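Possible regression after last week's pipeline update?

I re-ran a chain I had predicted before the update to compare outputs. Posting the input and the new output here so someone can diff against the archived version. Not blocking, just want to make sure nothing changed silently.
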Amino acid sequence: MTGQDRTTGSSAPVEIDTSKPHPARMYDWFLGGKDNYPVDEAMARELLKLDARGGEMARVNRAFMHRATRRLAEDGIRQFLDIGTGIPTEPNLHQIAQAAAPDARVVYCDNDPIVLAHAEALLRSTPEGATEYIQADARKPESILEHAGKVLDFDRPIALSLVALLHFVGDEDGAYEIVHSLMERLASGSYLVLSHVARDFDPEGADTAAAMYKARGLTLQPRTREEVTRFFEGYTLMEPGVSLAAEWHPELGEPVPVTGEDPIPGWVGVARKA
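New output (post-update):
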C-alpha cells in the first residue's frame, strides 16, 4: 500500500491568534521548540513560578507517549488516532509507531491553526503506512470520527491517544462524555492511552494555575487520580493501572532526568476495550 499524507480541513490561509497563549504553543516552548510566540512564553514563565519543572513535565509526558505507542505497536496495534496532537516534535507518534510497524496508519487531530501549518510538512508516512491530519475540536468527536474513518478501519482495533489533552476540557464541556463517545465507536481490542495533569500533589497550586488559564479565556482542570481513573471505567487497565508517568513501564526506555525528589504531577494509563 502506498503511503499517504493528507490534510483534512479548510483550505483558507492559516490565521494564527497571537493575542492570547495557546496550550500547544506553550507545550512547544516547554520542550524547547521555536514555534511559539511571546504571549506563550510569558504565560509559560508564569507557570514556572508555581513549579519550576515545567520542561521536565513536558518531557516526562512525551516519553510516556513514546513508550505507550511503541508497546502497542509491538503488541500488534496498527491504527492510531491521536487527538490533541500539538506542534510536531520529532519523534512524533507516527514515527514511533511506524518504526515498530511500518504499515501503521495514524490520524492526528488538533484545533490550533499553527499545528496545521506544520502538519503538512512534518507528518510524513512510511510507504507501507499512512498519516493524516485533521483540524478539529476535541469537543466535536463525531466530526473527528467521520474524517478519521477515511483512513482508519473502525472494524479493527485502534489506539486512541489523548495525551495531555483532557485537562484542557472541563467537566462542563463533557470531558468524560467525549471519551465515551470516542471509545464507543472503536472495535473490541482497541486501547485508550491517556495522560493528565494531577491535582493531588499541590491542590492550591493547581487551582492557581487554573485561575491563570481562566483569566486568559482558557480552560485548565487538573484532576485527582480518582477522577482520572473514571476515564477508564468499563475498560481493562494495563498494569500498573493509573500511575505517575515516570512509573509507567520505565523498562521500555527513555528515562527523563528530573529535579528533586517530588514526583512529576501527571497521571497516565493505558486500557483495553473488551
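Follow-up from reviewer: compared with the archived run. Residues 4-8+23-272 form a domain with the Rossmann fold fold (CATH 3.40.50.150). Marking as no regression found.
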